Fold each of these.
Amino acid sequence: MGESKFRTMNCEKGQSLVELLIAIGIFVIVVSTLAFFILDSYVTGRLAQEITVANFLAEEGMEATRSIRDNSWNNLSEGSYGLAVSTTNWIFEGTEEEVDGQLQEGIRQIQIENISQDIKKITSRVTWQFTETRPQEIKLITYLTNWAKPMPPYLAQLHYRWRDDNGGE
């Protein structure tokens, strides 16, 4: 009788150890999964925030280029430029502009290509280093025309229609 009681206790001790190992394994899996999801959501949130900032900087580059065009079409010569503010106007300065204050190792560059005499292709590019091995880039492209150039007389005649006092043509 004493011997069977001893065997039952030994089996229960072994069973408790197996249950403990299974419980620890499940706990480790749950904790590591939660840690992965928390870390991944942090990284995704940070990337989304940096993409928003980079998109703003690229849009600002486009608006600055339009402003420079509005001041003088001749300021849009082919090449790569950075941006600066001179008193109250945007100007091109250098070949690129550092935007380290907003993005890690951030650079904004405006590229201008001649398509024709009155059309320019504008590329506003913002690059930055999200992590050491993960560079990022936002690139916006638009085409600007010399809208202030006078219209040739033959087109001006097609554009305007005169009306008499009665509303007829």
Amino acid sequence: MVLDVSDATDNHMISDPSKFAIEIERAPGVAFVRCHGRLVAGARDSFYADVSQLIPDNKRIVLDLTDLTQMDSMGLGTLVRLYVSAKSAGVDLELFNIGQRIRQMLGVTGLLKAFAIVGDHGIRMP
């Protein structure tokens, strides 16, 4: 399932790095959310709404950031909101395949230690 959290309506938004889209795959108790494009101010509310809906039905949510091309402070704030919501519900929120710029942003803000990182750039999720 592909959810476009911008205003685009065609299915080519995944290949367009100026847009933001997610794909959600579910397994028993686990949701894998693949993020594509730019997690910036305009995409944050829909992203939060879509991912937070997964919290009640899962014990683990993995955000695959392999194809995330940009994240601003609003996107970072959204990750923190999701982390707090998940933690409050007893759900593990994990980040997979964070790139160097996102790792650096999380490190500078002191948030790298808060998030569980379950892969490194260059390793694909099973």
